[in-house]
């Protein structure tokens, strides 16, 4: 039986592979930037100025993400695992931008990401023979989706801004992190709440907002996911 994959077991990644995917990520990021720059994702009732952050950060962010993921995953699972996370990174950047702007995670992006991610992870398991990782990913996705669904129900009763788009995204985060290990899922979950809390406190201290302001949680979930993939952790469970 192939043991659960951990970062400490990952083989080295050729430098040219990292550079190649970083360049490819920048090119794909430019395509995404052009789609996001005009705010075409907005609905009729979503008005106001576009994000103050230039959309030109999108290709830079995706280039860094693809290079980082290439470095982390490299030839694991016969080079079949890297594409799963590259595709999800593309969707994640789009989701993070949109949620930060209009506080909405479009179903047109989150729902198709499920079969895409599951299919690519299945290919990786087929290449490596590690079907336990795929089962673990499915369980982590289901558990995280359920937890966030319960949180959304409580938030609805309290009149909070926590939405069901976050629930759908939580399932994806569980899938992406659970494939690596339960500890990765835990790090992603804790990090998202900690980072969102720090951001909320900073807004209050700097007088950029009030306690009643809704904060887009999606970007922090995705940033927590990234941190969990970058930080080397040994399996806790």
UniProtKB/TrEMBL annotation:
- Please state which protein family the record places this protein in: Belongs to the peptidase A24 family.
Q: Which domain of life is it from?
A: Bacteria
InterPro entries xrefs: Prepilin_IV_endopep_pep, Prepilin_peptidase/N-MTase
Q: Any idea which UniProt keywords this protein has?
A: Membrane, Transmembrane, Transmembrane helix
Q: Which residues cross the membrane?
A: 15-32, 53-73, 79-98, 137-158, 178-202, 214-233
Pfam families membership: Peptidase_A24
Q: Which organism is this entry from? A: Terrabacter terrae
Q: What is the lineage of its organism?
A: Bacteria, Bacillati, Actinomycetota, Actinomycetes, Micrococcales
Indicate yes or no for the key word Membrane.
Answer: yes
Q: What is this protein called?
A: Prepilin type IV endopeptidase peptidase domain-containing protein
- Please list the residue ranges annotated as the Prepilin type IV endopeptidase peptidase domain: 88-201
């Amino acid at each position: 039986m192939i043991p659960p994959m951990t970062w400490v077991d990952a083989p080295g990644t050729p430098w040219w592979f990292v550079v190649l995917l970083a360049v490819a990520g920048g090119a794909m990021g430019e395509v995404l930037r052009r789609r996001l720059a005009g705010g075409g994702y907005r609905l009729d009732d979503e008005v106001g100025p576009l994000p103050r952050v230039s959309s030109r950060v999108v290709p830079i962010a995706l280039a860094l993400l693809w290079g980082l993921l290439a470095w982390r995953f490299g030839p694991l699972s016969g080079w079949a695992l890297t594409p799963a996370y590259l595709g999800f990174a593309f969707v994640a950047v789009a989701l993070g931008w949109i949620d930060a702007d209009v506080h909405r995670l479009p179903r047109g992006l989150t729902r198709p990401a499920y079969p895409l991610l599951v299919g690519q992870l299945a290919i990786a398991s087929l290449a490596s023979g590690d079907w336990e990782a795929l089962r673990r990913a499915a369980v982590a996705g289901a558990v995280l989706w359920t937890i966030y669904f319960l949180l959304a129900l409580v938030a609805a009763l309290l009149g909070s801004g926590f939405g069901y788009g976050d629930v759908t995204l939580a399932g994806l985060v569980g899938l992406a992190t659970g494939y690596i290990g339960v500890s990765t899922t835990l790090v992603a979950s804790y990090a998202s709440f900690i980072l969102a809390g720090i951001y909320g406190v900073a807004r209050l201290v700097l007088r950029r907002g009030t306690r009643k302001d809704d904060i887009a949680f999606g970007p922090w979930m995705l940033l927590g996911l990234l941190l969990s993939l970058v930080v080397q952790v040994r399996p806790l469970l």
